[in-house]
């Protein structure tokens, strides 16, 4: 029986429990005089409570038994393999082979006496059944895999039996507990609260997990490369170091990447902020309801375009256009390269316009109408009102919105991968190519790689740097926005 | 204080023969298809306080807001009939709304100082209209406006502090100072005391009486005592129609219309 079936059966038990519990509560309610005793909860709450008792503990136990079982088996394989192979790197390869072997045995339906004695014999059987196995396997792996499979079967049986038993027990328990005054409603409420809490914890725990996994690899990287030369190095040339020419330090300089990132983000903000802000002012202050209700969704549609599409637009259309334009302007010599800071910045700016305008629109419309009326009644024009009253009043919120936008710009990947180029250099000419942290992360991790050389580990250091940067900006932006909110409410 | 004695406290109409400052002829206001005001004919006398009274939704605020065309800012609002400021039809296409609003200032129900300093709040109007020639001139306008609004002694040492930090009554007087700093001819007040406590209200009422010397004032109020105390003329609105208007003392002591009588004695509204 597969895990899917177990879950389905548990849910079915829960559904049956729901039905019977609700029915029992209904019968109890109907057979009592309301004047003497008032039922505490509606029958559906008794039903839900029974469903929860039947499913939640059972599924939790199933999860725990499954993960404990896989942990135990993994540990067994590990110790067994270690008795044959001392070198940890080679051992990890063999562990993988044992897993494959046990999979093959499972798929072929071999167990106990049917298991072939040698690895070669098993491999022949597997190949004829269309299952591929590594060539270099050894004979000790076959009995090991077979016994692991046998253990797994036992674990599975225990787990499934326990789960189903628990589901039935839970259903029966909650069914027997049904009384007129049982506070089923409050108990369901508590379960709802806990599940909401669990849902919100997932995001937080994931963030923590991301940071920890990156932190581990980053520390690994910094044991090879001096942090000072990483953070303050001005040369980015990881491949040169890989040649083993001795100059491995100083080749992982962050500065050119950081400058490229900030420069492109700056160009995009220079483009997106005025356009987005003016669009927001138009939407919030001038547009009639009819225009607003058509244009605003259209503008927000821009936010739904995948960024890779923007990147394609940049590299296929805008980049060549700028190159040809500059060639025409300068009489043949194109001073704007096809991949340039300018192209990447502008296209990213277009992507950011809806972000800027929708965030600032919220802030601008949050300025009380009384401010507008006060200014207009003094004989100010609309644009005077906007410039002198509304924008100053909304300024903290707008700054917060811009910081959020900037952190989007800094973390953006696909547009710059396509449009900015890969040349890591310190450069102030916006018409030439530069590269960003995100582009280099993609570069370093593209391909079939083992995460054990500084060349790949540097990606984690870069990622963590980027994460710290954007996290800092987001926190600061939220702080500003919150401070601003307090003023009006 | 009874209504009668309150009415007699207000000074008599000062310049009875002067032409009316503002005149409404057959004024109607529509919000979309719904008509909120019907055929209102009302004269606003110069250097008088005219109070508009009536139950909620009777159209008194609507009429007030059509006097400086603040209704223009509401989507779907349309005004018919004619409103004159001196000789000018304020709904004539040749009229500059912005200029009109500088001539007809307004104070709102809820104090709405800008999130700027006290000084900047008052200087706002003079700055955008270029009333002051230089900094000293501007200072003088700000100071005298604050003085006339009766706020000077309370804020003279903290002109650079935010106007939003003042108390409710002070904020409302700041808004009055802000409105008179642009040197308007008419001052519209939309329930200026409804968000204030009785003491702050008394201060503002006293102020209104003083401002009458230089400004023509139209005030919307829910408090009949207030109308009796501060105004020389009173207009009673009901269900979008002007029911009765006349000298305040006449309206309160000897109303001609049954509805007016019912309202001021508290039987409707």
Automatic annotation (TrEMBL), chain A:
Residues 258-477 form the ABC transmembrane type-1 domain. InterPro entries: MetI-like, MetI-like_sf, Phosphate_PstC, PstC_N, RhesusRHD. One of its GO terms (biological process) is phosphate ion transport. One of its GO terms (molecular function) is phosphate transmembrane transporter activity. The keyword Cell inner membrane applies. The keyword Coiled coil does not apply. Pfam families: BPD_transp_1 (PF00528), DUF3708 (PF12501). Belongs to the binding-protein-dependent transport system permease family. CysTW subfamily. This is Phosphate transport system permease protein. The lineage of its organism: Bacteria, Pseudomonadati, Pseudomonadota, Alphaproteobacteria, Hyphomicrobiales.
TrEMBL record, chain B:
GO terms for biological process: phosphate ion transmembrane transport. It comes from Devosia insulae DS-56. SUPFAM superfamilies: P-loop containing nucleoside triphosphate hydrolases. SMART domains: AAA. Keywords: ATP-binding, Nucleotide-binding, Phosphate transport, Transport. This is Phosphate ABC transporter ATP-binding protein. CDD domains: ABC_PstB_phosphate_transporter. Belongs to the ABC transporter superfamily. InterPro entries: AAA+_ATPase, ABC_transporter-like_ATP-bd, ABC_transporter-like_CS, P-loop_NTPase, PstB-like. Residues 22-264 form the ABC transporter domain. Signal peptide: none annotated.
């Amino acid at each position: 029986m597969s895990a899917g079936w177990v879950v389905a059966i548990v849910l079915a038990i829960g559904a049956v429990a729901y039905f019977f519990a609700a029915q029992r509560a209904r019968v109890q309610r109907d057979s009592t005089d309301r004047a003497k005793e008032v039922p505490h909860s509606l029958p559906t709450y008794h039903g839900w409570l029974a469903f929860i008792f039947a499913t939640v503990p059972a599924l939790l136990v199933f999860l725990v038994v499954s993960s404990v079982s896989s942990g135990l088996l993994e540990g067994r394989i590990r110790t067994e393999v270690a008795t044959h192979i001392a070198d940890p790197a080679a051992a990890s390869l063999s562990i993988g082979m044992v897993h494959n072997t046990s999979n093959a045995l499972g798929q072929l339906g071999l167990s106990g006496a049917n298991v072939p004695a040698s690895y070669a014999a098993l491999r022949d059987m597997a190949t004829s059944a269309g299952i591929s196995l590594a060539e270099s396997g050894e004979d000790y792996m076959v009995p090991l895999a077979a016994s692991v499979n046998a253990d797994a079967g036992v674990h599975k049986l225990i787990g499934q039996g326990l789960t189903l038993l628990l589901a039935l027990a839970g259903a029966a328990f909650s069914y027997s507990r049904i009384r007129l005054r049982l506070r089923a409603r409050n108990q369901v409420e508590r379960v709802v609260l806990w599940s909401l809490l669990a849902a919100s914890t997932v995001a937080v725990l994931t963030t923590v997990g991301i940071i920890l996994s990156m932190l581990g690899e980053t520390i690994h990287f910094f044991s090879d490369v001096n942090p000072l030369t990483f953070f303050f190095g001005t040369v980015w040339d990881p491949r040169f170091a890989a040649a083993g020419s001795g100059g491995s330090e100083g080749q992982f300089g962050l500065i050119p990447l950081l400058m490229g990132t900030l420069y492109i983000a700056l160009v995009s903000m220079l483009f997106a902020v005025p356009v987005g802000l003016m669009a927001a002012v138009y939407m919030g202050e001038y547009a009639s309801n009819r225009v607003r209700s058509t244009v605003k969704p259209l503008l927000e549609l821009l936010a739904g375009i995948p960024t890779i599409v923007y990147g394609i637009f940049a590299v296929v259309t805008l980049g060549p256009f700028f190159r040809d334009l500059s060639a025409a302007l300068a009489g043949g010599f194109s001073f704007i390269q096809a991949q340039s800071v300018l192209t990447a910045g502008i296209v990213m700016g277009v992507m950011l316009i809806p972000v800027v305008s929708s965030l600032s629109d919220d802030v601008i419309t949050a300025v009380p109408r009384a401010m507008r009326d006060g200014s207009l009644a003094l004989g100010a024009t609309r644009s005077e009102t906007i410039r002198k009253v509304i924008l100053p009043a909304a300024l903290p919120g707008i700054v917060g919105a811009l910081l959020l936008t900037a952190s989007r710009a800094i973390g953006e990947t696909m547009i710059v991968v396509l449009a900015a180029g890969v040349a890591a250099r310190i450069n102030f000419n916006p018409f030439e190519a530069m590269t960003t942290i995100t582009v280099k992360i993609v570069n370093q991790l593209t391909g079939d790689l083992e995460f054990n050389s500084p060349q790949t580990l540097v990606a984690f250091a870069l990622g963590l740097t980027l994460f710290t940067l954007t996290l800092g900006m987001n926190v600061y932006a939220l702080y500003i926005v919150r401070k601003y909110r307090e003023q009006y409410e | 204080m009874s209504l009668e004695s309150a009415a007699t406290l207000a000074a008599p109409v000062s310049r009875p023969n002067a032409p009316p400052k503002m005149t409404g002829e057959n004024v109607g206001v529509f919000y979309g298809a719904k008509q909120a005001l019907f055929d209102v004919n009302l004269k606003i006398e110069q250097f008088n306080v005219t109070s508009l009274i009536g139950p909620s939704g009777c159209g008194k605020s609507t009429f007030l807001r059509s006097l400086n065309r603040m209704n223009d800012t509401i989507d779907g609002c349309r005004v018919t009939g004619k409103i004159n400021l001196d000789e000018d039809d304020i709904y004539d296409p040749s009229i500059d709304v912005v200029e009109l609003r500088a001539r007809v200032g307004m104070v709102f129900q809820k104090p709405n100082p800008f999130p700027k300093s006290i000084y900047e709040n008052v200087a706002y109007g003079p700055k955008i209209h270029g009333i002051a020639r230089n900094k000293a001139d501007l200072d003088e306008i700000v100071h005298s406006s604050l003085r006339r609004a009766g706020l000077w002694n309370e804020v003279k040492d903290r002109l650079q502090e935010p106007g939003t930090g003042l108390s409710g009554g002070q904020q409302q007087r700041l808004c009055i100072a802000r409105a008179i700093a642009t040197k308007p001819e008419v001052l519209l007040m939309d329930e200026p005391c409804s968000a204030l406590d009785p003491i702050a209200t008394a201060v503002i009422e006293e102020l209104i009486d003083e401002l009458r010397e230089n400004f023509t004032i139209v005030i919307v109020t829910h408090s009949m005592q207030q109308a009796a105390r501060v105004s020389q003329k009173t207009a009673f609105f009901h269900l979008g129609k002007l029911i009765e208007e006349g000298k305040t003392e006449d309206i309160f002591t000897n109303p001609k219309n049954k509805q007016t009588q019912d309202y001021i004695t508290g039987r409707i509204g």
